[in-house]
Amino acid sequence: MYQPYPSGAEMPEPAGRVPPPPVLMAIRLMYVGAAISVLGLIANLATVGSLKGTIQKAYPAYTPSHVHSIEVQLVVSTTITALIAIGLWVWMALANKAGKPWARIISTILFAFNTLFLLLSLLQPHASLGLVASGLVWLAGLGATILIWRRESGPHYAAKVAEPT
């Protein structure tokens, strides 16, 4: 049997498997979650001026020193949390795209933390725009979590377990 050798300087690469449609949509939602997190961070930094008034309204007995201290703490913690969240969104999108079996579990755990953070943010002084961004991020996480656990998504992750690493 004669089979012609492929012409060209490079060997053809094996075709990678394309994730099923629910996983592709989940990956898109993860990137949307990262993008909304970036926009939320920008909005939070842009509305720092209104944060002082919000804190004063929530805690009228606080001295200007206390208000400033809380303001700085909220800006720093929000910025650090947003940067970590952006990195986690991108990491989970890449891991789910690769079909890593642990990616669904970690994504779900991160969604649970996101839910907890959203609920806790309701108890703190916040700008309305930041809360809207947090709600949209939560919705993206909910959609992605539902999609990666759909029945059609299972083989994408199960096949990676069987392959040697």
What's the short version?
The chain has helices at residues 21-46, 48-58, 64-97, 101-121, 128-148, 154-162.
Architecture overview:
By secondary structure, this protein is mainly alpha-helical. It has one domain (21-162). Helix content is 74%, strand content 0%. The protein contains six helices and no strands. The protein has helices at 21-46, 48-58, 64-97, 101-121, 128-148, 154-162. Helix 1 runs antiparallel to helix 3 (64-97), helix 1 runs antiparallel to helix 5 (128-148) and helix 4 (101-121) runs antiparallel to helix 5. The longest helix is centred in the middle third of the chain and has 34 residues, at 64-97. The radius of gyration is 22 Å and the shape is elongated. The chain starts with 20 loop residues before the first helix and ends with a helix. The model is unreliable at 11-15 (pLDDT under 50).
